[in-house]
Amino acid sequence: MFVRIGRFAATHARAVLAVAVLFMIGAGVLGTTAFGKLQSQGFTDPGAESSQAQDLIQRNFGGTSDFLLLVQASSGSVDDPAVRDAAAGLSARVAADGELSQVASYWQTGLPALKSDDGRSALIAAHAPDQDKVEDLVSRYSGEQGPITVTAGGSAVANVDINDQVTKDLALAESIAVPLIALLLFVVFGSVVAALLPLVVGGIAVVGTFAELSVLGSLTDVSVFAIQLTTALGLGLGIDYALLTVNRFREELANSGDTRSAVIATVASAGRTIAFSAATVAVALAVLLLFPLYFLRSFAYAGVGVIVIAMISAVVVLPALLMVLGPRVNAGRLPWRRNLSTVSPRWARVARAVLRRPLVTALPVLAVLVLAALPLFNVQFGTPDERVLPVTAASRVVGDELRAHFPQNDSRAIQIVTEGQPTPAASADYTRRLSQLPGVTRVSSQSAPGAERWTVVTGGDSRSDQAQDLVKQIRALPAPGDVQVGGDAATLVDSKHTIGSRLPLAAGIIAVTTFLLLFLFTGSVLQPLRALLFNLISLSATLGVMTLIFQDGHGASVLGFTPLPLDTSMLMLLFCIAFGLSMDYEVFVISRIKEARDHGASLRDAVVDGLSHSGRIVSAAAALLAISLFAFGTSGVSFIQMFGLGTGLAVLLDATLVRGILLPAGMRALGRFAWWSPGPLRRFHDRFGVTESAPAPREKQPA
């Protein structure tokens, strides 16, 4: 099949390039409309009990207090006459604002829960029904107003602050990564023309995926954070696939001297590797569709889209471009790169050293990886709030003040709601039993036509283990009617259950499909098992290091974040992407080893030959991708930092320690069983598997 694709690309090169240009123009026009359709939410399960409680509160009580104005006295107390007059005027304006509802002000109600314990600040609480209007509301009410200073916060403002911060961070990350990657591309490819080819593959993938997100954004909810994955993964895969293709093309061109034959042979070998590599990465990201959180599902939409488009671009468009360029792919050669050989003597020496002493080289690597994974035993899971932001962000300032000086604040209380009107006696009895639960400091109730609501305030953090235990106790408590329990603590409990309950199925699908793909690729049942085991070890090490940093706080002062329990959604995303990219490099290396073995090389010679041909490609691709990912470490949002640093670390560990040391050591340990399969599976592979194509015979150019 890949030989036919290569012939098609070589024969119709200019037509393929013309179609690619038209696709870029059309996708570019459509893709520009994507940004206005993407959403900033999606961290919760819409079918969970906490989400249903939120919907009931919104429908029957006008929503929760998600827009808070922290009013601080410039001097003295919030009860001083000048402060009271200014705050009362502000309260009246907020109450009359048609874009806010359920307004409650300390200066109008006198509720002690709305006043800080030091008397220097108080709250005006409201609900913002339209998230799109929140930024205008913040500008409208924030700032110094005579004797008071007003700061906007709450979950609605935190969403705006996170989105604004991510937008700034993305621009900063790109300003750091793009120049470095551009410079290193010239060094890695050795010529100006070749260095531009990854931008072709990556550009088509990114623009095409933006168009896909625009279409999906019109049909369903898609997270705005999918933009970051699209750009990072599109550029990364563009580099990976272009490195593999261009290096193979140079090799074939040097062997045959004929551009057409070189293109066909390149697609027959490198194209097959890219297709299987793309399939393994796509499977890892596609399992995110199992989760109902559209934050995660959005990464499946973007990830699978960018992978498929990048693969098609690398297998069809790039060979057509190489057909047009021919030997000119080496134009603009750097002066110090006289030899553009694809073989790396350094990686050959590494392979020989590992094969000579596999235990001496592999055991220290395994020890380091296992040691790095140990913090995972103490991992804690959470959901993001304003503490993922810098301490100077407005919503973070308000949140810190609430935690420090508003012990009775109910903006993060546990919310209980039921449709139907319980009798006053039943409601009072339920309130009494709620107040007797451990950790409860205050319970209040509110009635509406056809509904009842209870607000349970606790003394500790709303996302603490105690708060989560309290949610479970409340849900087990007999209630007057069919109650739904919501609030921050309930949302965390439900999120952990949503992801945890589907995690075994997701892991099973990834493992089984990866095993099948690698079996079809190699014909061995032991190679997929070895690859899965090594990936599990390296990913555990990565997640252990992330636990040590972002949960336990080692390096927090340097990176500028607040240690928190790890975000469950972001951990799942990190695992899937890192696993997919690891398998990407596995396919790159094992394809060259198997090719040498199929041509009659011994196991030792095949491993040395495979690493010498693929080691430089894998390490260079990993380094370039890691730069793009590590740039997210400059983010002001801690879960974005964790994603960038974690994925970048996973890529580097895999490309160096796993592929360079553990893979050849594992091959040596397997010995003559390295390519073993039971008879029935061997016959199945002979019939349905894909074998490495030999280089295509040289074809004469038509006169």
Automatic annotation (TrEMBL):
Keyword Transmembrane helix among UniProt keywords: yes
**Keywords assigned by UniProt?**
Cell membrane, Membrane, Transmembrane, Transmembrane helix
Entry's localization field: Cell membrane
SUPFAM superfamilies the UniProt entry points to: Multidrug efflux transporter AcrB transmembrane domain
Q: Which GO terms describe its cellular component?
A: plasma membrane
Q: Which PROSITE patterns match?
A: SSD
The record places domain SSD at 193-324
Q: How does it sit in the bilayer?
A: Multi-pass membrane protein
**TM stretches of this protein:** 12-35, 177-210, 222-244, 274-295, 301-325, 359-377, 505-525, 532-550, 570-593, 614-633, 639-662
Q: Which Pfam families match?
A: MMPL (PF03176)
Q: Name the family.
A: Belongs to the resistance-nodulation-cell division (RND) (TC 2.A.6) family. MmpL subfamily.
Question: What name appears for this protein in its UniProt entry?
Answer: MMPL family transporter
